[in-house]
Specification:
- This protein has 201 residues and is of the alpha+beta class.
- The relative contact order is 0.15.
- 53% of the residues lie in helices and 22% in strands.
- The strands form 2 sheets. Strands 1-8-3-6 form a 4-stranded antiparallel beta sheet. The protein has a 4-stranded antiparallel beta sheet with strand order 2-7-4-5.
- Helix 4 crosses helix 5.
- Strand 4 and strand 5 form a beta hairpin.
């Protein structure tokens, strides 16, 4: 009974976190919140769990209630960190999720994590019934595209030091939670360059 109550309480807290986060993009009606809640599935996985495998179709959008995910791909036998997501953000292969085609990227957990998942079919059904949920999804996709474009611009127009400073300003805990090799890969620099920047910062 105690464990059941604990799960209910933590589930409610996680759901509150989810709706607090999405409220930054769209105000949802009570009916939309209720239906969306019924489609969200709470998941708990250990560190190292693979959320999305390479060359598969991504069927879910994941909200990270606690924990950390890394998106990466293989190039010339080495893995390249494409993205890192932490609490109160989303993880998904958005290209695969939208196009229904396999993606070369893998998404793994860097920490034990609590997630809420939403299946593509459920989202499609919700969007067809609720305009505000459709608007929410469109805004989330737009936000994700802006983030990707910003990262692309940073890699091309910002110095290694500037990219590191931006990461520390926006995600200061990453440097303690993510292996330095992955941080360097995410920033598009070598681990030696990252070490040199950190020693000078």
């Amino acid at each position: 009974m105690v464990e059941t109550i604990h799960n209910l309480l933590t589930g409610k807290k996680g759901m509150d976190n989810f709706f607090s986060t999405v409220s930054q993009f769209t105000n949802l009606s009570a009916d939309s919140k209720e239906e969306l809640s019924s489609c969200l599935k709470k998941l708990e996985f250990p560190k190292g769990h693979i959320l999305v495998k390479q060359d598969t179709v991504c069927n879910f959008v994941y909200f990270i209630d606690s924990g950390l995910t890394r998106t990466y791909y293989l190039k010339d036998g080495k893995d390249v960190t494409d993205w890192i997501s932490d609490e109160n953000s989303f993880a998904s292969s958005i290209i695969s999720f939208i196009t229904r085609k396999p993606d070369r990227r893998t998404i793994e957990l860097l920490e034990p994590s609590v997630l809420f998942s939403l299946h593509y079919n459920d989202l499609e059904n919700l969007c067809s019934k609720h305009h505000d949920i459709e608007n929410l999804f469109r805004n989330l996709v737009s936000f994700g595209l802006v983030q990707l474009q910003q990262k692309f611009d940073d890699l091309h127009f910002s110095s290694a030091l500037q990219r590191y400073q931006t990461l520390m300003a926006t995600h200061p805990t990453f440097i303690q939670r993510v292996p330095l090799g992955m941080i360097a890969s995410y920033l598009g620099i070598t681990q030696e360059t990252l070490s040199r920047i950190r020693s000078q910062a």
